[in-house]
Design a protein that fits this description.
Elements lengths: L22 H4 E7 L2 H15 L5 E6 L5 H9 L5 E5 L6 H11 L4 E5 L3 E2 L2 H13 L4 E7 L35 E5 H6 L19 H11 L4 E11 L8 H17 L3 H13 L6 H32 L2
Parallel strand pairs: 1-2, 1-4, 2-3, 6-8
Antiparallel strand pairs: 4-7, 5-8, 6-7
Helix pairs in contact: 2-3, 8-9, 8-10, 9-10
Length: 314
């Protein structure tokens, strides 16, 4: 695991898996993206070089079709790669549900377009799904923080906004950036990703993945988290800038209202700030007050929108 310049991360010895696990017949990797630049940077220059085991892959491109995109599609042609073009932006949840509809293997592993991993991590997740009969399996998502200059307004309590698990979280749960799903269980129980919570256009909606996991649990499914299986989230520098962070926190407040979890969501938000270590008390409370206030503004705004919509459609 990457050692951060503001968090005393432990180095984690990666688990290695028996190479005989039949990944090809049981597991599909699914990447949903709306960024051509990421598709080129991570898939053409990275994934294609490491996924040498003829693993099934589904790529859903969620934006308008361009000449450049069609060129990339031509480069990616393979018997093991299925490419879906949404033609225009329909949202992350729409794309993820499209994968659930067309995937032909028993298990699918969703991977964010900025996450780097190896075939080993895919096999670990797949084996945990298969051997333990789990229905959702996630792992620790780390990030190359050490190379970034971290601004004063970011603390360990905000790592979830960067798409990175915090070592100090008491209860870590799988996230959609790298998560294995038992597709058969989802189809039998008719479980889909919530369109309202998946990112769409310029909005920063969130929670479609964790809400999906909650629905799995509610249907009697088993969820597992493997701490010593680590993948890396390559953080775009714009994510650590204040305007983005403010917008992200604001949308988190809106999203908690959209999934009827506002009070618990606010409590979780505050607790994430207060349970951090190796940071001054003043900074912890200062950031907790400022960003929790932004979170509440998002909640209030969404409640107002919900109220207006309910009056309009009476």
């Amino acid at each position: 695991m990457v050692k951060s310049d503001f968090i005393d991360y432990k180095y984690i010895e990666r688990t290695h898996i028996d190479a005989s696990f039949p990944i090809n017949s049981l597991v599909t990797i699914a990447i949903c993206t709306n960024k051509i630049s990421y598709l080129k940077k991570y898939f053409l220059n990275y994934y294609r070089n490491i996924l040498v085991d003829e693993i099934n892959i589904i790529i859903v491109f969620d934006d308008k079709t361009t000449e450049l995109l069609l060129q990339i599609v031509e480069e990616l042609k393979s018997d093991f790669i299925t490419i879906v073009l949404n033609e225009h932006n329909k949202g992350l949840s729409y794309s993820r549900n499209k994968v659930l509809d067309i995937c032909k293997t028993q298990y699918v592993i969703f991977v964010d377009d900025e996450v780097t991993f190896t075939t080993n991590e895919v096999a670990i997740i797949g084996k945990e799904l298969f051997d333990s009969r789990n229905n959702i399996v996630g792992c620790f998502i780390s990030g190359p923080i050490a190379g970034l200059k971290i601004p004063f307004y970011i603390s360990p309590g905000q790592l979830h906004y960067l798409g990175i698990h915090n070592e100090y979280d008491k209860k870590k749960i799988p996230w959609g950036a790298f998560v294995g799903i038992d597709l058969y269980f989802c189809k039998v129980n008719n479980i889909k990703f919530n369109f309202k919570l998946g990112r769409y256009n310029t909005g920063l909606q969130s929670g479609d993945d964790t809400t999906f996991i909650f629905e799995i649990q509610k249907a009697g499914g088993k969820v597992s988290f493997i701490e010593n299986c680590v993948v890396y989230h390559n953080i775009d520098t714009h994510r650590i800038r204040l305007p983005y962070l403010v917008k992200r926190v604001y949308w988190q407040g809106k999203s908690e209202v959209l999934r009827d979890n506002a009070i618990n969501g606010l409590k979780k938000e505050i607790s994430r700030y207060l349970q951090v270590q190796h940071t001054s008390i003043f900074k912890i409370y200062f950031l907790a007050i400022i960003f929790s206030s932004i979170f509440i503004i998002g909640m209030v705004y969404q409640y107002l929108i919900n109220g207006i919509n309910s009056l309009r459609f009476r």
